[in-house]
Description:
Elements: H1 2-31, H2 40-64, H3 79-109, H4 113-120, H5 127-143, H6 155-163, H7 165-179, H8 187-213, E1 215-227, E2 230-237, E3 249-254, E4 267-270, E5 280-285, H9 289-294, E6 302-309, E7 321-326, H10 331-343, E8 349-355, H11 364-373, E9 377-383, H12 384-387, H13 392-398, E10 406-410, H14 413-425, E11 433-436
Parallel strand pairs: 7-8, 7-10, 8-9, 10-11
Antiparallel strand pairs: 1-2, 1-6, 2-5, 3-4, 3-6
Helix pairs in contact: 1-2, 2-3, 2-7, 2-8, 3-4, 5-7, 10-11
The structure holds flavin-adenine dinucleotide.
Amino acid sequence: xxxxxxxxxxxxxxxxxxxxxxxxxxxxxxxxxxxxxxxxxxxxxxxxxxxxxxxxxxxxxxxxxxxxxxxxxxxxxxxxxxxxxxxxxxxxxxxxxxxxxxxxxxxxxxxxxxxxxxxxxxxxxxxxxxxxxxxxxxxxxxxxxxxxxxxxxxxxxxxxxxxxxxxxxxxxxxxxxxxxxxxxxxxxxxxxxxxxxxxxxxxxxxxxxxxxxxxxxxxxxxxxxxxxxxxxxxxxxxxxxxxxxxxxxxxxxxxxxxxxxxxxxxxxxxxxxxxxxxxxxxxxxxxxxxxxxxxxxxxxxxxxxxxxxxxxxxxxxxxxxxxxxxxxxxxxxxxxxxxxxxxxxxxxxxxxxxxxxxxxxxxxxxxxxxxxxxxxxxxxxxxxxxxxxxxxxxxxxxxxxxxxxxxxxxxxxxxxxxxxxxxxxxxxxxxxxxxxxxxxx
Length: 441
Ligand SMILES: Cc1cc2nc3c(=O)[nH]c(=O)nc-3n(C[C@H](O)[C@H](O)[C@H](O)COP(=O)(O)OP(=O)(O)OC[C@H]3O[C@@H](n4cnc5c(N)ncnc54)[C@H](O)[C@@H]3O)c2cc1C
C-alpha cells in the first residue's frame, strides 16, 4: 500500500509540474475572444499564440525542474526521474516554440506572402520580434546537443553549453512581456514575472544555498580493486558526516591534482556502503575520462560529496522484492544488502545478478556471504556466456512468484530494456517495475 501511495504522490508531483508549466497557456486559452478558432487564419493565429505561451511556460518549469536539492527530488521518485521530466518538458517546449512563429506566419499567408514574410522577418522596428528570434536561435544552439540525433556529447562540455539556455529564457521573457497581449493585464505581467521570479529563485537556491548545505568534504581512507577496471573507495569524513539511505547517490568531485583528469568535476555515484557504516563506500567503474582517472586515486586524496539524491528503494521495505542487477548497476543493491545484513531483519528478496562471466561478477563473493546473514534473501547469478540473454523462463524458474513482487532493476541501458520486457512478460505489473539509470542525459 505504501508503494502505491508513493507512486501516486510521485505521479501527482510530475503532473503538477506539467500543469504549472501549461498554466499560462490555459489562462490564454480562456482569455481568447470568441471566434478565435473560426476560420483557418484565425485558428492558425490563435494556435501560434498558444504555442508560444505554452512553450515559454514549459521552458521555465523545465529550468526549475533541473535544480538539485537533496530530499526535494524524493517527491518525484528521485533525481533521475525529475530530470527525465526536465528533459521531456524541455523537448516539448522547444517544439512548441518552433511552431510559434511558423503558425503566426501561416496565419498571415492568407493575406499575402509578403505579410507572412513580414511576420517572420520584421523590419528594424520589430525589436520585440527579433528578441523572440534571438531566443529561438540561441535555444537551438544551446539545446541541440541534448538530442540523441547529434550523438553522445562530451558531458562536461554539454553541461556548460546547456546552462547557457538561461540566456534564451531571458530573451524569450523580454519578447513575451513586450508583445504578449493574449492574456489581459495585470494577469500577463503577474504570471510571467511570477514564473520568472520562481525560476530564478529555484536556480539560485539550488546553486548557492542548497549545494552549500549539502556538501561534505571527505578523504580517501582505502582503495579496494574488485576488478581491474573498478575501484571501491572507502572515505572518512573531514567534517559533518553524510546521512543517507541505502541505494542513494551523491555527486563526487576529486581534488587530487596528480590524477590525469576530472579534477573538481562533479560525477554522480551510488553509495555502495550501508548507512550504518562509519565510512562511506563508493564503487567506480572506468567508463570515461574522469572515472578512469579515479582508478589511480591514492589514500589521503581529498574528495567532496554533494547529496544525497535518489529514491530507488522506498523508505520502508516492500513485502516481496525481486532485484535484477547488471555490471556496475550492482552498487545500489550492494549498499542495500550491506544495510540489511547490519540489521539482520527477515526480508523476502530474490536477487538475480546478471554478469558476463565469473571474472566480471563484481562483489559476487561478498553477496554470497551477505546472503548467509540476511534471512529470506536469495541470490542467483546469471552468467551470460552460459545462460544466454536473460529470459522469462529463467526469471520464472528462479523466482516462481515474481509476478507479485516489486521489481528493482539497475544496470546498463540494454539490460534495463530487456529486464523490463522479461518481467512484464512474466506477469509483473508496470507500476511494480522500478529502474535506476546511470545516465542523466
Ligand atoms: C544516478 C547515477 C548513479 C551512478 N552510480 C554509479 C556507480 O555507482 N558507479 C559507477 O561506476 N558509475 C555510476 N554512475 C555513472 C557515472 O556517473 C559515470 O560513469 C561517470 O559520470 C562518467 O564520467 P566520465 O568523465 O568518466 O565519463 P564521460 O565520458 O565524461 O561520460 C560518460 C557518460 O557518463 C554520463 N555522465 C558523465 N558525467 C556525468 C555527470 N556529471 N552527471 C551525469 N551523468 C554524467 C553521461 O551520460 C556521459 O555520456 C552513475 C550515474 C548516475 C546518473
